[in-house]
Design goal:
186 residues, four-stranded antiparallel β-sheet
């Protein structure tokens, strides 16, 4: 494994499991991800999907943005566009960019998301219950489902909510859904 962002992310996932003294079998049971897949993930043989990261973050009780921030190299106050960590979900083509400079000890951060037309991501549970989010649509259309209630978001719309249950991101198209999310830990 090298020192790419994805390599650091995979190492951080392994260290979280080890810090909690969880076996791969125990993590598989808690996350619903097979032991074999978790093993391949920690060895860097497969890339994590958004769904996998969501399940692992729920086990660890942390927002995905926090996990990604912890995989960054050095904390800074200013981060230029070209230095912002970007991650692509190999399963859906979803792109997540960390807009906020990576740092520990802060409770709020901003994330940019781009979901391709026709793509859908389901999260069975939030990584941290009560997480406050503000989702601001920049372009395209996004159907965002919170606990079974669908919100169709269009450019300029802003949805504010606290996360307590299952969510779904779905882009009906014809263009990609492009949005910013501000996340505040409870």
């Amino acid at each position: 494994m090298g020192n790419s962002f994805e390599d650091r992310l995979v190492r951080r996932l392994a260290s979280l499991r080890e810090a909690r003294t969880l076996s791969l079998e125990e993590l598989a049971t808690q996350s619903g991800i097979s032991r074999a897949t978790l093993s391949r993930l920690e060895r860097g043989e497969t890339s994590p999907t958004a769904e996998m990261l969501g399940k692992l973050c729920a086990v660890y009780g942390m927002p995905m943005s926090r996990l990604i921030a912890e995989a960054e190299q050095a904390p800074v106050q200013l981060i230029r566009r070209q230095e912002q960590a970007e991650w692509r979900d190999p399963a859906t083509g979803f792109v997540r960019r960390m807009v906020s400079p990576p740092a520990r000890g802060f409770k709020a951060e901003m994330i940019e998301g781009r979901l391709p037309p026709g793509a859908m991501i389901d999260y069975a549970q939030p990584p941290l219950r009560g997480l406050e989010q503000h989702m601001w649509m920049l372009s395209g259309v996004l159907d965002y489902t919170i606990d079974g209630s669908v919100h169709r978001l269009q450019p300029g719309d802003c949805l504010r909510f606290q996360l307590h249950g299952a969510t779904r991101f779905s882009c009906p198209g014809p263009d990609a859904a492009h949005y910013l999310i501000a996340i505040c830990e409870p």
